[in-house]
Amino acid sequence: MILFSISIIIAAAIILSQSDNIAAALPNNIRTVTVSAILVIVACVMMIFSGFSGCGGAFKRNSKPLYVYVVFAAIVLAMSIAGVVIAAINSPQISSAIGQGLTNVATNEYGDPNRQSITTAMDRLQRQFQCCGGNSHLEYTNSLWANTSATNATNSNPVPSSCCINQQSRCGQDRISNSVIYTNGCTTGSGLSAQFILNSVVGMGIAVCVIQGLAILCALILLHDLVYNEGKGTHSTTKVVIIKEQAS
Q1: pLDDT means per 10 residues in the chain (248 residues)?
Q2: Per-residue confidence (pLDDT) for residue 162, from 0 to 100
Q3: Helices (H), strands (E): how many in the chain?
Q4: Is the pTM of this model over 0.70?
Q5: Secondary structure (DSSP) of 84-123
Q6: d(CA 241, CA 104)
Q7: Would you say 23 and 201 are in contact if contact means Cβ atoms under 8 Å apart?
Q8: Which domains occur in the chain, in start order?
Q9: What are the Cα distances from residue 187, in Å, to 33, 71, 181?
Q10: Residue 191 near residue 94 (C-beta atoms within 8 A)
């Protein structure tokens, strides 16, 4: 159980690191990917600590630590279910939201001095997926960036340098042909990546739910056995005392 939780935490952390570039450049509803992964991570951390309590109770045949384990395990199960539900609900809207979000970034936000973090995130995204703009590189033609930072471009359809196949200064603004830039939009590549991330979160959440559900069931069976034996032992002790009193 503990090793399983650690492996899930590592996997979720990798997913979070992979989703940073997408989440930074996308609207808030896409950040539910991060929320879902964090819920799974927190649930697994709680599962590790509660697992020690459960192991101690089972090893010492003590019902109190097992009660603590069952309570925390139920909380972990609820958090895992919440993470799965959040990811599953947002999964159908992921492609359209990404398309709208990236187009808005390329047209209205990229190059804004007050939103440098979004510009940096979009640059990383375009390099990572070898793409340009949301649905097309032409989105930069009349964009905020083109009207402010690319006013001296010799090409009528300027694009940022992060859209260039070979990263060179002003290659996107002064290019002779489109063969030196990425012309495909980033919606497809980042959409598939975000969809994979969501599916991974759902898969990990379901795995945690199944394992945690089985663990709770085993703990309840053991608790029933302990409580039954404790009651039986108390009853036997009382019976012996009564017999001794009657004999005397």
Answers
A1: 59 58 55 68 76 71 78 82 76 70 88 88 87 90 87 81 86 82 81 68 80 83 75 46 48
A2: 92
A3: 7, 0
A4: no
A5: HHHHHHHSTTHHHHHHHHHHHIIIIITT-GGGHHHHHHHH
A6: 82
A7: no
A8: 2-94+193-231 (no CATH), 96-189 (1.10.1450.10)
A9: 16, 43, 16
A10: yes
Angle at 16 between CA 14 and CA 20, to 5 degrees: 120
Quick one: pLDDT at residue 66?
79
111: Cα separation from own chain's centroid: 29
In one-letter notation, the amino acid at residue 201 is V
Nearest to 140 by CA among 183, 184, 105, 107: 107
Phi, psi of 25 (to 5 degrees): -105, 5
pLDDT at residue 178, rounded to an integer: 84
The C-alpha angle 69, 73, 78, rounded to 5 degrees, equals: 155
Q: Are 118 and 112 in contact (CB under 8 A)?
A: yes
- Reported as type and span, the H/E element at residue 81 is helix 63-90
Dist CA 239 CA 63 (whole Å): 24
Phi, psi of 228 (to 5 degrees): -65, -45
Backbone φ and ψ of 76, nearest 5°? -60, -45
* CB of 204 closer than 8 Å to CB of 6: no
Q: What is the CA radius of gyration of the chain?
A: 28
